[in-house]
Amino acid sequence: MGESTATAPLDAASASALRDRWNSVRDRVSAAAGRSGRKASDVMLVVVTKSGSIDQIRELVNMGQVDLAENRVQQLTQRAATIGEWLSRRSEMDPKATVPQVRWHMIGSLQRNKVRKAMDVSRLVHSMDSLRLAEEMQAAASRRPTPMEVLVEVNVSGEASKSGIAPPAVRHMLDQMDTMVNLKVRGLMCMAPLSGGQDEARRTFERCKELFDDCRRSGSGGDRFDILSMGMSGDFEVAIECGANLVRVGGAVIGPPQVEEAADEA
Length: 266
Ligand SMILES: *Cc1c(COP(=O)(O)O)cnc(C)c1O
Prior knowledge:
By secondary structure, the protein is of the alpha/beta class. The chain is about 40% helix and about 15% strand. Helix 1 packs across helix 2. It has one domain (about 15-95, about 105-255): Alanine racemase (TIM Barrel), CATH 3.20.20.10. The protein has helices spanning about 10-35, 55-65, 75-95, 115-120, 130-140, 170-175, 195-220, 235-240, 250-255; strands at about 45-50, 65-70, 105, 120-130, 150-155, 185-190, 225-230, 245-250. It contains nine helices and eight strands. The chain is globular. It has an eight-stranded parallel β-sheet with strand order 7-6-5-4-3-2-1-8. It binds pyridoxal-5'-phosphate. The site of pyridoxal-5'-phosphate (PLP) has 13 residues, from strand 8 and helix 9. Pyridoxal-5'-phosphate binds near residues 248 and 250.
């Protein structure tokens, strides 16, 4: 579907603007980690590439950005394939060179008929938002060599427009997922309300952190329940101050949208 697989580097000005934005976000992540008594390396920066071009993604990978995210299955699988081919051509051409590593994250809501495709390329699925989806993924993951790692998406603010599990139901969801041996729950994911600004974002993130800590204390999430994914371009510093150890940042790195946001066909 049309995206060039040729190695067409960004022009120098665009590449340098991209690098500046990426470095600035990394500095801000590091400062916010410091304010919460942690190191920059304690917070994983996942760059959301949904509005970026494939050339920007290549440039980010060359700069050393490892973790990339998409919110639509079709764009995720196309881009994972394109970048994968590009990297394997590079290692064929120069077997001694260290080829960068890339890990794809699925952060958007998952239709059940696309579960398998999304799982094939994802390192971590952030958007496990119903028991039905968990059951579907458990079944589809039976042939995987290792369990699929997932985060439970929590609708902390209770907005009807948001997907996610209601906070009081999260522990029960985790208990039920305990028997799903092909899935490994690594933690929680949430989003701040669209309106309400930084104060509302902070309240949301604080509540999600409390829930995360409760789950850890009670052991419901199992032994590797250790990822708290919250914070986007407008609120990632607040999220880190509230305890996020993974932030999903798109626009602040990508800049003005380069592609129209993809829509998945059903
Ligand atoms: C798009 C998106 C992001 C990144 O949003 P920005 O505001 O561009 O940083 C993070 N999380 C999810 C689930 C998204 O869909």
